[in-house]
Amino acid sequence: MMSLVEIRKSFLVSIWFMFLTFPIMVIRVNTVENIVEWRWNNMIAVGVGSFLLSFVWRYLIRRKEQGVRRQRESAGPRVSIFQRIGEDRRIFLPALTAAALAVVVFPFLVSMYQINIMTTAFMYIMLGLGLNIVVGVAGLLDLGYVAFYAVGAYTYALLNYHFGLNFWVCLPIGAALGALFGILLGFPVLRLRGDYLAIVTLGFGEIIRLILENWNEFSFGPSGISNIPRPGFFGVEFSLLAHTRYIYFLVVLITIFTIFMVNRLQNSRIGRAWLALREDEIACQAMGVDKVRTKLTAFALGATWAGLAGVIFAAKTTFINPASFTLWESINILCIVVLGGMGSIVGVILGALVLVLLPEYLRAFAEYRILTFGCVLVLMMVFRPGGIVSNVRRTYRFEGPDSGDK
């Protein structure tokens, strides 16, 4: 039960909110009749609403503290429902089959608008998994990730415009150039960490955007590049709806490939080196891990998936310009990693679906949808700071021969 002290605090909060919102919510000047209207019912609504919200907020904070206390007193780490599903094959296999079936039949049951939204969500899953390598696994804060996304998109657009190369030829070239630019970014920042690394990578992203925006002879400036051809399939002519479905399935297949590769990388030797680098860079280097190679590999592999996603983005939209690759795109991708759970593949997938689909399906709330979206982010960061699916650190145990065999 809530104590009288907490009820008193919530009451004081409601009084304070009524005082702050009084000039806006209560007083309204009617310029037609030259009178002042007093809307006291709005003040009552603000007071009651703020009291209830404060009451619920304090209750949830108390429940969170109790959960943290119980977790500390328990023997092991708390296991989430997603981890239980992944460990139980009787649940995991039917759930995976149902999800695969839903993904396959989805484009045949909904409109083209819904297919485009889901295609965008899968593209952001690719981007989130790529950034997850750099930020979530290796612990290198990168705020210029959108630059590699732009490199992939402009690779396809420019190579097609000048040399007539098709999508399938430009797809690996975009990935390779993304990796190359990742290495070029990695070399100057090898000695930087934390805020300094974030500032330098942010500057790198802005440099790429400004080059694309001002070098008219190279990138066509703010006008961008239009009429970018969509990916073909052995010369088959598609209608607009069929092409939309085709790109959807193409993105799904590349996303599955991304999930497989990122999972294998995290469980590999280089993946364990990334984790060691994230936890303690000095101890990692003292144990013989090549810090230079480990950082450059993280930047290069993370940028590879951004280059792939950029080529697909250019083919999907058939038009690109520098306005599509601003700092806010990097922040959105970083929010996917942080909200989903840094280092967690399942968490990044869920985070991408939430951050892409939620604003779209909240359009019915008009101007309140961004406010609702922001409230969801704040609540997640307060009550689940580890993300939707927190990553569980792997433990390795050596099981020697039994004493009875000696």
How would you describe the overall organization of this protein?
The chain is mostly helical and 406 residues long. The chain has 2 domains: 4-73, no CATH class; 110-383, ABC transporter involved in vitamin B12 uptake, BtuC, CATH 1.10.3470. Helix content is 71%, strand content 2%. The chain is built from 16 helices and 2 strands. It has helices at 4-26, 40-73, 81-87, 89-105, 112-137, 146-163, 167-186, 194-214, 216-219, 240-266, 269-279, 281-286, 291-317, 327-340, 345-361, 369-383, and strands spanning 27-30, 35-38. The chain has a two-stranded antiparallel ribbon. Strand 1 and strand 2 form a beta hairpin. The chain is globular, with a radius of gyration of 25 Å. The N and C termini lie far apart (60 Å).
What's the CATH class of the largest domain, please?
A: Mainly Alpha
Number of strands: 2
Structural class: mainly alpha
Succession of helices and strands: HEEHHHHHHHHHHHHHHH
